Amino acid sequence: ETGVTQTPRHLVMGMTNKKSLKCEQHLGHNAMYWYKQSAKKPLELMFVYNFKEQTENNSVPSRFSPECPNSSHLFLHLHTLQPEDSALYLCASSQFGGGAEQYFGPGTRLTVT
Amino acid sequence: AQSVTQLDSQVPVFEEAPVELRCNYSSSVSVYLFWYVQYPNQGLQLLLKYLSGSTLVKGINGFEAEFNKSQTSFHLRKPSVHISDTAEYFCAVSGVRNQGGKLIFGQGTELSVKP
Q1: CA angle (A100, A102, A105) in 5-degree steps
Q2: B109 touches chain A (CB under 8 A)
């Protein structure tokens, strides 16, 4: 595998379910990000991890819980979501430092029923 | 804090015609600027970026952008587009002092190239 991979690519879950999104980067980067992409809206930065430490939480509801066990893996744990949480969730990674290019995964298309 | 405005949500153009996608930003500090492209069912891919130096930046796939500090703009151009350029394009900004990599994205411009 190369680049940034995300699993699953598609997920349908009920409002009472618990599920997790997984992201893995094979680029040797030390920063990882979760973004939410909704139709007709700018990408919304959700969380940033630098060297496994969370450095940004963009006022994300607690029903989204990130986990970064090491610099290569990032998870987003989901529970009791709302229909408005349906979106494309993108993971990205980069080297730490200003101006660094972020490399994106293909995303997980989440539908909450 | 920074913000980005992409002035056109949709840009239809015929194949082999030139195109310009407009981006304006707002920031109280110096910035880095980026253009990303997103093809259907894929993540974002970097087209080009401005960090410092020459204000004309060349990227992949024949795209270029010009940083204009006085007009706080970073417009993306291509002299002759192909059908394969059909995609969504995002302008993004990051404060120079922000070492944590936080990017602020614009709303996106959907480029549709017609034969």
Answers
A1: 165
A2: no
Considering only CA atoms, give the Rg of chain B: 14
CA A94 to CA A30: how far, in whole Å?
Answer: 7
Number of Cβ within a 10 Å radius of residue B85: 20
pLDDT in tens, A61-112: 999 999 999 999 999 999 999 999 999 999 999 988 778 889 999 999 999 9
Is pLDDT of B32 > 80? yes
Choose among B44, B97, B108: nearest Cβ to A104. B44
Q: Where are the alpha helices (DSSP H) in chain B?
A: none
Which among B104, B110, B108 has a CA at the least distance from the CA of B33? B104
Question: Between chains, do B105 and A101 touch, taking CB under 8 Å as contact?
Answer: no
Q: DSSP letter at A100?
A: P
- Please indicate whether, in this complex, the C-beta atoms of A42 and B107 are within 8 angstroms of each other: yes
Cβ atoms of B77 and B65 within 8 Å: the answer is yes
Tokens 């195109």 correspond to B19
